[in-house]
Amino acid sequence: MHIDVVLLPRDLKVEQLVGRAAVVFDVLRASTSMTAALAAGVSEIRIFPDIAAAASARGAFKGKGLLCGEEKALRPPGFDLGNSPGAFNADEHAGRTMFISTTNGTRAILACAAAGAVFVGALVNAAAVAKAAAETALDVVLVCAGTNGQIAMEDLLGCGAVIDALAKDYPLILNSDTASIAARLFSASKRDLPAILRESRGGKNVVAAGLAPDIDFCAKLDSFNIVGQVFGQPPVVRLLARS
Fold first, then answer.
1. Which of 5, 72, 105, 241 is deepest in the core (most CB within 10 A)?
2. Per-position pLDDT tens, the chain of length 243
3. What is the domain-level CATH number for residue 72?
4. What is the DSSP track for 25-60?
5. Rounded to an integer, what distance in angstroms lies between the CA atom of residue 128 and that of residue 235?
């Protein structure tokens, strides 16, 4: 299995996606929040490039929708929830359709439309994502969402966690130094993930926004054994059915 890592969505080339499985990481916090939402029973997550588009789609929706997202890490006015993964719970959110736009994560998902399969990855479901990607029998590209157009250490850690999980069961060929860096970064950091996330630029932004508990949630390696898979255009994330 060939593995590559792309540091930012703008660096993606079509040939890196066609015929490959893509995993999108926005560890702080969109991909973690989507995983938590699916674990709480959200039926599907509809992805939008900006908050205006998400709000408009939610306004036109006839069912029981859930409008989520963030601007500068905070919940936009009029939205039901922001982008905190710990905010989701089965009692309030099971069975609802979620509409989401975030600064980095949703745009990274949109950038992967040409891939043969697209999964939502995070530290909290790294092992489950590795298994799902391997089951496609495709080569894999791991895509970091970044933070405001800059490389995000936490996303690279997520990539490294998936590489580490894959390497336990499959022979891997890392196609770039970037993939090797991700693997080594995770290996060096896995015993102290909360502290490492706090040191990252994205982590500092989350703490500055008064949302420090989100860091600990996002750092819980393999706390979920579920995977969100992206379907269709416009993209919708649904829980991957496992046998």
1. 105
2. 999 999 999 999 999 999 999 999 999 999 999 999 999 999 999 999 999 999 999 999 999 999 999 999 999 999 999 999 999 999 999 999 999 999 999 999 999 999 999 999 999 999 999 999 999 999 999 999 999 999 999 999 999 999 999 999 999 999 999 999 999 999 999 999 999 999 999 999 999 999 999 999 999 999 999 999 999 999 999 999 765
3. 3.90.1560.10
4. E-TTTHHHHHHHHHHTT--EEEE-SSHHHHHHHHHH
5. 21
Q: Is residue 241 in a domain?
A: no
Which residues lie below 8 Å from residue 97, measured CB to CB, with a gap of 6+? 42, 43, 44, 45, 46, 61, 63, 64, 65, 66
15 occurs within a structural domain:
yes
- 118 is in which domain, residue-wise? 2-224
